[in-house]
């Protein structure tokens, strides 16, 4: 058995005349989290569907736990759990009934299904709502139940397709905690997300997918190094001339937000460079309301690599 739980080689998929995946290559080491990052329409869900045997690729190969997704789909399905973008639970059943049913579908005995259901209800803080119909659950509770159902048979590999989309902040943090617990227990997780902070928090490695191609891959720190410089963010007072502030920093790789009266300047981070910029603003008669030095973020990385925001919609949606 290799160290890689997931291997993708030159994976391609078209929908009629639309090229969704144009030859992607990825490897995911066992016991780690890979975050596949990209905007709507980039090909994230299509990749998940192929890896989980729900969709056939047009070309290329993919191996899950050493099994070919096309030639040996049953062995692949026995190795994975899947949580899609939308909760796939029966809203007419109770939370407990959903989990016990999923256990039986995974060929667990009736007793083992009942035991695993109780364990999952406790793990995902759903015990108090176990006997309620799922239609009465909040969005966060449904999502937690959905993740619990995908884990009922304790699969070694888990696919999470945008697991926190639409959740409130508390529910997002709970899902993050659950993902970390799964990894600590040895699971391998393939996570797709539009949220840069989510990838930064959870992933051992990040791959950036844009228009069907992997355009960058590495750790969060490695990707941030592509942007390079720190940024000094200056907020100008309402009484000051914002255009004068822009002229004062002209040629310093500045970005501006007139509505927030904010100017952001790329810097090497030296004290002398910061002082020189502040002196120029002072000579221009510009008064400062706020000042902050920021390290590069994954937002900066995504904008640098793609030229657009991570949450921007593309023409091909939900692929």
Write a short abstract of this structure.
By secondary structure, the chain is α/β, with parallel strands linked by helices. Among the domains are: 4-79 and 155-225, P-loop containing nucleotide triphosphate hydrolases (Rossmann fold, 3-Layer(aba) Sandwich); 229-295, Alpha-Beta Plaits, CATH 3.30.70.100. It is built from eleven helices and 14 strands.
Could you give me the name of the CATH homologous superfamily of the domain at 4-79 and 155-225? P-loop containing nucleotide triphosphate hydrolases
Q: What integer value in Å does the Rg equal?
A: 24 Å
Tell me the total number of β-strands: 14
In percent terms, what proportion of residues is strand?
A: 25-35%
Distance separating the two termini: 31 Å
Q: How many individual helices?
A: 11
Main CATH class of the domain at 4-79 and 155-225: Alpha Beta
Helix residue percentage: 25-40%
| Helix and strand sequence | EEEHEEHEHHHEHEHEEHEHEEHEH
- Do you know the CATH topology of the domain at 4-79 and 155-225? Rossmann fold
- Which parts are unreliable, with pLDDT below 50 for 5 consecutive residues or more? 312-319
CATH architecture of the domain at 4-79 and 155-225: 3-Layer(aba) Sandwich
**Rough outline:** elongated
Largest β-sheet summary = 6 strands, mixed
| Overall average residue pLDDT | 87
Explained architecture:
With 319 residues, the chain is of the alpha/beta class. It has a 6-stranded mixed β-sheet with strand order 6-7-8-3-9-10, with helices on both faces. It is elongated and about 80 Å long. Among the domains are: 147 residues, 3-Layer(aba) Sandwich (Rossmann fold); 67 residues, Alpha-Beta Plaits (2-Layer Sandwich). Helix 3 packs across helix 4, helix 3 packs parallel to helix 5 and helix 8 crosses helix 11. It is built from 11 helices and 14 strands. 34% of the residues lie in helices and 28% in strands.
């Amino acid at each position: 058995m290799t160290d890689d739980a997931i291997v993708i080689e030159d994976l391609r998929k078209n929908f009629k005349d639309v090229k969704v995946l144009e030859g992607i290559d990825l490897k995911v080491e066992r016991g780690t989290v890979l975050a596949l990052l990209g905007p709507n329409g980039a090909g994230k869900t299509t990749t998940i569907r192929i890896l989980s045997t729900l969709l056939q690729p047009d070309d290329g190969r993919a191996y899950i736990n050493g099994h070919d997704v096309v030639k040996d789909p049953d062995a692949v399905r026995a190795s994975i759990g899947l949580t899609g973008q939308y909760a796939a639970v029966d809203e007419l059943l109770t939370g407990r009934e959903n989990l016990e049913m999923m256990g039986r579908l995974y060929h667990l005995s009736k007793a083992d299904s009942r035991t695993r259901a109780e364990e999952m209800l406790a793990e995902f803080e759903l015990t108090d709502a176990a006997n309620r119909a799922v239609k009465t659950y909040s969005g966060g509770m449904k999502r937690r139940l959905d993740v619990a159902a995908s884990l009922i048979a304790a699969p070694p590999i888990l696919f999470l397709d945008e697991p926190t989309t639409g959740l409130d902040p508390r529910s997002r943090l709970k899902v993050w905690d659950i993902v970390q617990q799964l990894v600590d227990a040895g699971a391998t997780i393939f996570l797709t997300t539009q949220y840069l902070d989510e990838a930064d928090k959870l992933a051992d490695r990040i791959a950036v997918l844009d228009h069907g191609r992997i355009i960058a891959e590495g750790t969060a720190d490695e990707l941030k190094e592509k942007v390079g410089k720190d940024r000094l963010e200056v907020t100008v007072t309402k009484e000051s001339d914002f255009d004068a502030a822009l002229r004062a920093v002209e040629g310093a790789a500045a970005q501006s937000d007139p509505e927030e009266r904010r100017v952001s300047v790329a810097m090497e981070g030296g004290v002398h460079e910061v002082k020189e910029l502040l002196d120029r603003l002072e000579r221009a008669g510009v008064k400062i309301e706020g000042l902050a030095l920021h390290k590069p973020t994954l937002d900066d990385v995504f904008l640098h690599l793609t030229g657009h925001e991570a949450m921007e919609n593309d023409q091909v949606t939900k692929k």
